[in-house]
Structures are given as structure tokens and as C-alpha cells.
Design brief:
Structural class: mainly beta
Helix content: under 10%
Number of helices: 2
Shape: globular
Distance between the termini: 17 Å
Strand order of the largest sheet: 2-7-3-4-8
Length: about 250
């Protein structure tokens, strides 16, 4: 089916506004993953950093692969290998002479994520993941419960809230907000979507600063997103995610 370019542009704006309305500032990085890039419902949307770039112009340097394997998060710099990036770019629909987007073939799903944050040098190698009491590195957090955890002798706290709250504590609106504490400091991440549908995919010290970094997936109505939260870029108070990858909804 041919999709009018104007309709797709409107969908991008609507989806981006709904998902990122609470973001404190522009995200510092970009996140990519192989899969569905049809630019339609149920497929990935172009990362915030690349919205004004043609896919062929996406940067090819400073990428790291992130892959969960054997209880660890394996981080590897993609110094010369851009085959994975070419594979994703080939999935992005392009406009013909009439401005109609021509969908392309999707690739088989690959759980490997690719992260680019120019301001941060990630620590390569396997990083032990925090293992919850359920015996896995993943968790569907209970809303408003204060988790007190320890990663490699570093204590930290985590709490998830659904919706915003006024000065009197009354909830309003929607959206998952993660509250994280460590080193005597408090960090708040308003991420959007639904707090009750969020999932911690992994906690590890990805950037090597001794504090926990988070990979979080949050589901929504026919949409969702994966978020990366790096401690080395966090400041006390409100923060936007370091990078995110959104799938489109209706």
C-alpha cells in the first residue's frame, strides 16, 4: 500500500508529541535496532536525533552494540562495521517522484541494540546485570513501591509512578515516571506511555562510572518505546532519557 508522505509526516508529529511531551530536553543519543521500519503502525519511528536527516546521512561513527547474553550486557564499539546500519537504513521507506512513500522489506528481528551517545565513551566488554529475586535481570515493577537494590556494592533506589501528580499529591494525566536515587542524589525520568506497563529490561554499569544505568521498555496503546538511561549524563532533578526508540501507534 502506498502511504502519502504528508500523512506520514502528520503521524510522526502526533506520535512524537504524545510520547515526548514530558521530556526535559532533547535526548543526547540515538538508539537503533533491526526489525520493522515500515514507518507505520507497529513499526519503529525515526529517532529524535535523525528526524531532519535522510537515512543515508545518518552518522556511521561512535556506535556501540548492546546485547544481553548469559546474565551480562555485552558492549562493543562498532568502529568499522557498519553492515548493521546499512541493513536498517535499507528498511526505511523512501519517497518516489510523487512524494509517495514506498515501503521496503523488513528484516528478521535481532535483539541487539545500537547506541550512539557522542558525549559518552562506553566501557566495552561484558557488564554484569542486576539479578532480581525472580532470578532474571528483568522486572515488571510494582507501582509506587520503593525498591532498594545494590549493584556491585553500590546501593540505589528505584520507584515507578504512573501519571503526573499535582502539588497536593493528586494524580492526573498519564505517563511512566522513574525515580532513581544513588550517591545521595535523586533523579526523575518522565518517560511517557503507561507506568503499569513498564518493564526493566536490564540494570548495569554501562558507562563505567560506578553507578547503575537502565534499559527500560514501556508499552502503550498500539505503541511503545525502549529507553536508555545513563548515569553519567544525569543531573539531580528531571532528566530526559539518554536515548529512546519508539514504535508507532494509531
Amino acid at each position: 500500500m502506498k502511504i502519502p508522505l504528508k500523512r506520514v509526516a502528520i503521524a510522526i508529529v502526533v506520535t512524537a508529541n504524545a510520547a515526548m511531551a514530558v521530556a526535559a530536553e532533547r535526548e543526547a543519543g540515538a538508539l537503533l535496532q533491526s526489525g520493522e521500519w515500515r514507518q507505520d503502525v507497529g513499526s519503529y519511528g525515526v529517532p529524535q536525533q535523525f528526524e531532519k536527516l535522510k537515512p543515508a546521512k545518518w552518522p556511521k561513527d561512535l556506535w556501540y552494540s548492546l546485547k544481553v547474553k548469559d546474565g551480562a550486557l555485552h558492549v562493543q564499539a562498532q568502529k568499522s562495521n557498519i553492515d548493521w546500519l546499512n541493513t536498517i537504513v535499507r528498511q526505511i521507506p523512501v519517497a518516489d517522484d510523487q512524494g509517495i512513500l514506498e515501503p521496503r522489506e523488513s528484516e528478521e528481528y535481532d535483539p541487539t541494540m545500537y547506541l550512539r551517545v557522542p558525549a559518552v565513551v562506553l566501557k566495552e566488554g561484558p557488564h554484569p546485570l542486576y539479578i532480581f529475586k525472580n532470578g532474571t535481570p528483568t522486572l515488571l515493577p510494582e507501582l509506587d513501591y520503593q525498591y532498594q537494590l545494590v549493584l556491585d556494592k553500590t546501593p540505589f533506589k528505584m520507584r515507578v509512578q504512573n501519571g503526573l501528580k499535582g502539588k497536593n499529591g493528586e494524580p492526573y494525566g498519564e505517563g511512566a515516571t522513574y525515580f532513581i536515587e544513588y550517591d545521595g542524589k535523586k533523579f526523575e525520568y518522565p518517560l511517557g506511555y503507561y507506568g503499569w506497563a513498564s518493564k526493566v529490561m536490564g540494570i548495569a554499569d554501562i558507562d563505567g562510572d560506578g553507578f547503575p544505568d537502565f534499559i527500560i521498555y514501556i508499552d502503550g496503546s498500539n505503541s511503545g518505546a525502549t529507553f536508555i538511561l545513563l548515569s553519567s549524563l544525569a543531573k539531580p532533578g528531571k532528566n530526559s532519557a539518554t536515548a529512546s526508540l519508539h514504535s508507532w501507534g494509531c
